[in-house]
Specification:
With about 725 residues, the protein is α+β, with helices and mostly antiparallel strands. The chain has helices at about 15-20, 25-35, 40-55, 60-70, 75-85, 90-105, 110-120, 130-145, 150-160, 165-180, 185-190, 205-215, 220-225, 235-250, 250-265, 270-280, 305-315, 390-400, 420-425, 435-460, 470, 480-490, 495-510, 525-535, 550-565, 565-580, 585-605, 605-625, 630-640, 645-660, 665-675, 690-700; strands at about 290-300, 315-320, 335-340, 360-370, 380-385, 405, 410-415. Strands 1, 2, 3, 4, 5, 6 and 7 form a seven-stranded antiparallel β-sheet that branches. Strand 4 and strand 5 form a beta hairpin. Helix 2 runs antiparallel to helix 3 (about 40-55) and helix 6 (about 90-105) runs antiparallel to helix 7. The chain is globular, with a radius of gyration of 30 Å.
Length: about 725
């Protein structure tokens, strides 16, 4: 952009450049040109010269901050911003720059406090655009760092600024933060409650507090709410709002204490109290208070050939294919073999179906290393639970006892929740009998009902003061904590049966079971539809009566769930959408529903179901005379996942030959091939055949997710969204 001396001075002095810095017009234009050409070092040199002639110049400080940032000199930029702010603490540019850089330097609370303090000094009708832009920059910086709650609050505030550009930026910021699926949905969709009943004696004071918050005066609004806490027994939303706003300011300890107070107010639905207890757990290390040691242990092997032969012939040691590229240490060659140590020998495939009685469970992983220049041959045991130490040691000694030399002491490498490990154990079953979608779900329920649930009933938990759920089931003082505990452990369970298992736990402990959320009749439309959806917390949408919604309301709900990455609810909506006559549903919504259900089925390794949805989508496309190119692209990943490279190659050739002019299909094809590992991000092909890769993909779909270290072990994390699957090493 050309330099314009009649634009506002970048230093925040509320004057045009021509009148703020009349004796530096040429130099500022030169700086502008250097910056546009990305000659940042030259910018900094010129700024050094100008600073000697014009000390304490706001526009030069602002330019220096941007130049240093562009030159990747974050600490230096922060130092300049701090000096600028200290000299001109009322300058909106100084405030915004210092606040934004505080976030990048690891102090988001400081940055937010600076901006909010500045906003609260301004009249509502004269909000400084620099401060608003600074708040936006702050939110974007936080979202890029994985922070969720505060950026969403900032994004929602900005949506009501009287500027289309700022409002749209606020919407984008909210979507960016909502899409962070590393955080549970309840955290990503935390909102303050604005409705106040007419009967509340302090309604005027509550509404005044909400007005302050909605105008960006968060601290003043928080203080006003805190003055109402004594009335929280009559109106618990006061405590909820105080807790949420304290989270905005990163005051986690006080926020969690306030959520505790909220959970103890009995004058409200049990589900609200349980949600507050659940949120407390999500922000607490060792939330359940049941950590156990996860260890490693090394066994020196004196006769590696004999030991390997014995291990390969021992039914308790399942030789497991693995990718040696997972081991990147140049100073240590990868293992020769990887074994899953089982708790019992696998049955033959003559059995009709896998059950928890005939299917062995992996209790550790055993890496076999050959001799190296500086090390003897050895077994390295990983994922070793302290409570399984004796069982694992006995199995190794019984298998190769005569070849064992020096044995190292167990080394604790981390700790994990015992409840989490018990739930995740379903990932570690080895079945020689093929699973169908039906037998897999039956197996999951069998495990959870007969092994997991009895275990959790009687397991002592720190979050229950060292007592077990069974011991406190009839004590009202623990009811909210029990409700939060049930929501917490649902994260560990397989998605398709998690709700059913948790409902069974609620029933056994005599806790309220979450009910279906009714849709008003007749179904509201327009603003009424959105108001109804807004009245239901997003994390409860899974229980809505989607079958009673109009197609328009389904469309709104689908888009909200898509933006929030709420795949479970999105899948429920998709099923309802596709149950309706084709002509009654907008084509874009119908296509989205098919794509959702195919992707969900693939993620759950239910490829037969994915193929069913694929075939339906292609039939509809043909009947509507629409291009089936997108569905053909999706077919590639589905059939590769099924281990059928011939069909995948056939669809790939079809797309390339017949749909090369379809930009959407070509873009999706490139994304798919990159995701599958068949193409590099720069568009060049990987040196691997589709058949070879299909074999890798088929194996990968049957194995648990790799841990951070690159090797799956029984102590690895289950997906946060649930969805644990079974490993069938066929």
């Amino acid at each position: 952009m050309p330099f314009d001396a009649y634009t506002n001075c970048p230093g925040g002095r509320d004057k045009k450049i021509k009148f703020c810095c009349p004796d530096m017009i040429k130099e500022l234009e030169q700086l502008h040109q250097l910056f546009e050409r990305k000659q940042h070092a030259a910018c900094i040199n010129l700024l050094d010269q100008l600073a000697e002639k014009h000390p304490n110049c706001a526009c030069l400080d602002a330019a220096r901050i941007q130049s240093l940032l562009a030159d990747n000199k974050l600490p230096e930029s922060y130092d300049v911003a701090q000096k600028f702010y200290n000299r001109e603490p009322e300058n909106p540019v100084a405030i915004s720059d210092f606040a934004s850089l505080a976030v990048y330097m690891g102090d988001p609370a400081k940055g937010l406090n600076l901006i909010i303090d500045a906003l609260e000094k301004n009249d509502t009708n004269t909000l400084k655009v620099e401060l608003i832009n600074g708040l936006l920059t702050l939110g974007v910086a936080m979202a890029s760092m994985g922070i969720v709650v505060t950026p969403i609050a900032i994004g929602q505030f900005l949506q009501f600024i009287n500027s289309k550009e700022i409002a749209e930026s606020g919407i984008r910021l909210t979507m960016q933060a909502l899409a962070n699926t590393n955080e549970p949905l309840i955290i990503r969709s935390l909102r303050i409650q604005t409705f106040c009943p007419e009967s509340f004696v302090k309604k005027a004071e509550f509404q005044n507090a909400m007005g302050l918050i909605n105008s960006g005066r968060w601290k003043k609004g928080l203080a006003a709410l805190e003055n109402l806490i004594e009335y929280a027994k009559d109106f618990p939303a006061i405590l909820w709002n105080v807790a949420v706003i304290r989270l905005w300011f990163f005051d986690v300890d006080k926020a969690l204490d306030t959520f505790r107070q909220y959970s103890e107010v009995e004058n409200q639905p049990f589900e609200n109290r349980a949600d507050a207890a659940y949120i407390r757990m999500l922000f607490t290390n060792d939330a359940l208070g049941d950590l156990v040691d996860i260890q490693t242990r090394e066994y020196e092997i004196t006769d590696p050939d004999s030991a390997l032969e014995k291990l390969l012939s021992n039914g308790l040691f399942a030789n497991t294919p693995f990718d040696q590229r997972q081991f990147q240490d140049p100073d240590s060659p990868p293992p020769k073999n990887l074994f899953a140590l089982l708790d019992k020998v696998a049955v033959t495939a003559s059995e009709t179906k896998p059950t928890i009685n005939n299917t062995p469970l992996a209790i550790a992983n055993v890496l076999f290393f050959g001799r190296q220049t500086d090390k003897p041959a050895r077994l390295f045991v990983v994922g070793l639970h302290a409570e399984n130490l004796v069982q694992v040691d006995n199995a190794i000694r019984n298998a190769i006892g005569g070849t064992i030399g020096k044995v190292g002491e167990p080394q604790t490498v981390t700790q994990q929740s015992r409840t989490h490990l018990k739930a995740q154990a379903v990932l570690n079953f080895h079945s020689s009998i093929p699973f169908t979608a039906e037998s897999e779900e039956e197996f999951l329920l069998d495990y959870y009902n007969n092994i997991f649930i009895p275990f959790v009933y009687d397991a002592p938990l720190g979050c229950l003061d060292g007592k077990s759920p069974a011991q406190v089931a009839n004590d009202p003082a623990y009811s909210a904590r029990l409700g939060g505990w049930i929501r917490y452990i649902e994260m560990f369970l397989a998605t398709e049966v998690g709700a059913e298992v948790c409902n069974k736990i609620c029933e056994h402990l005599k806790l309220p079971i979450p009910n279906t959320i009714r849709v008003p009749e007749p179904c509201p439309s327009g603003n009424g539809a959105r108001q109804f959806l807004d009245s239901v917390p997003l994390w409860r949408w899974q229980r809505l009566e989607f079958e009673k919604m109009t197609t328009d309301m389904l469309n709104v709900a689908y888009r909200v769930c898509m933006n929030a990455r709420d795949v479970r609810t999105q899948s429920r909506i998709s099923e309802e959408v596709l149950s309706r006559p084709v002509a009654s549903v907008p084509p874009q919504l119908r296509s989205g529903a098919y794509a959702t259900l195919m992707s969900t089925a693939q993620a759950e390794h239910n490829f037969e179901e994915a193929v069913t949805w694929l075939e339906r989508a292609m039939v509809e496309a043909r009947e509507a005379r629409q291009s089936p190119a997108v569905w053909k692209v999706m077919a590639i990943s589905i059939y590769l996942g099924m281990g059928e490279p011939e069909k995948a190659n056939s669809f790939l050739a079809d797309v390339v030959q017949n749909h090369s002019n379809d930009e959407t299909a070509m873009r999706l094809l490139q994304e798919t091939l990159i995701k599958l590992g068949l193409m590099n991000p720069d568009g060049t092909p990987r040196n691997v055949s589709a058949r070879e890769f299909a074999g890798e993909q088929h194996l990968a779909t049957k194995q648990p997710t790799a841990t951070t270290g690159g090797l799956w072990t029984p102590d690895g994390d289950a997906p946060k969204s649930g969805g644990g699957k079974l490993w069938t090493p066929d």
